[in-house]
Amino acid sequence: MTSKKWLTGFLALNSFIQIGLFFLLKLDFPLVESYLKMAGCDTAYVLKEYFASAIIIIAPAGFLANIWINRGRAEGVVLAKFIGVTMLLAATNLGLSLHRLDLPAMDLVRSIPITLLAFMQKKQQLTA
């Protein structure tokens, strides 16, 4: 399997996970609050809105990057790099700010391969 296929697979997986998280945040926030151990805390509400806003951007961007990569457009790789680096920075910031590594762990697990695979792509590989 080529790195292009792995990249598109990780992007699609990430987008579907992000959509699932969005619905979980919007439909069952008390469950999320109890998992975060932040029930009734204003910080939990701010995190909910921050994550929901970020998800609205990242999930469709991942699908768009997939479409562009599959059509051989270099913009797809640029967008994949943006998604990966943005998720890495956001997860690192969240972990350092809240002093909890469990919260950004899944984002890090998904963003590291997306970032590495996106930066591995070469212009000539896109058309292959």
Structure notes:
There is one protein chain. By secondary structure, the chain is mainly α. Helix 1 (3-27) runs antiparallel to helix 5 and helix 3 packs antiparallel against helix 4. The protein has one domain. It starts with a helix and ends with a helix. The protein is built from six helices and no strands.
- Relative strand content: under 5%
Q: Give me the strand/helix succession.
A: HHHHHH
Q: What's the total helix number?
A: 6
Cα Rg: 16 Å
Which spans of ≥5 residues are poorly predicted at pLDDT below 50?
none
Shape: elongated
How many structural domains are formed by the residues? Answer: 1
- Termini Cα gap: 13 Å
List keywords for this structure.
single chain, 128 residues, mainly alpha, 84% helix, elongated
Itemize the secondary structure elements and their pairings.
Layout: H1 3-27, H2 29-36, H3 42-70, H4 74-98, H5 105-120, H6 123-126
Helix pairs in contact: 1-3, 1-5, 3-4, 4-5
